[in-house]
Amino acid sequence: MAPGINIAHAQLTYTNLLDYFEPRPIQNDEQYWSTQEVIDTLLSKPVLSEDEEAYLHLLSILLETYDDEQQTIPELRGIELVRTLIQEAGLKQRDLLPIFKHESIVSDVLSGHRKLTVAHIDALATFFELPHRLFFEPS
Questions:
Q1: Is residue 3, in this structure, part of any structural domain at all?
Q2: pLDDT one-digit tens code per residue, 60-104
Q3: Residues 55 and 100 grouped into a single domain
Q4: Would you call 129 exposed, middle or buried from its count of C-beta atoms within 10 A (0-12, 13-18, 19+)?
Q5: Which of 10, 67, 74, 77 qualifies as a FRET site for 52, CA 20 to 30 Å off?
Q6: How far apart are CA 15 and CA 51, in angstroms?
Q7: How far is 19 from 39, CA to CA, in rounded Å?
Q8: Within this chain, do residues 95 and 124 fall inside the same structural domain, yes or no?
Q9: Are 90 and 65 in the same domain?
């Protein structure tokens, strides 16, 4: 960060912002938190200029890209994944009624007596915001 520039209290041009904190692809947590600090400072301003909004958008993309790269895809698949997600989210079987329609179906699926249908997989992927492929049983 460039000394002498206070981005919290001044309207800065895009070039000034680049001089203050040069955006680069984030490679580690230290860079991540430095970028987040600049974002937080900009977000604390009551009004942002167009240049500040564009710069903020760029920094947000860098954070999102790093987050996406750090996100590990779980080894769990199918019913095992559903059971784990329910447990981690502190859900009850009845919380899945909008997906399965009947508590007996929820129970049968979770106990392994019934397979997930394509409709169930689609609804689970939407509900848990995960890729559909994770809900298919491994072959």
A1: no
A2: 999 999 888 887 655 789 999 999 999 999 999 999 999 999 999
A3: no
A4: exposed
A5: 67
A6: 9
A7: 15
A8: yes
A9: no
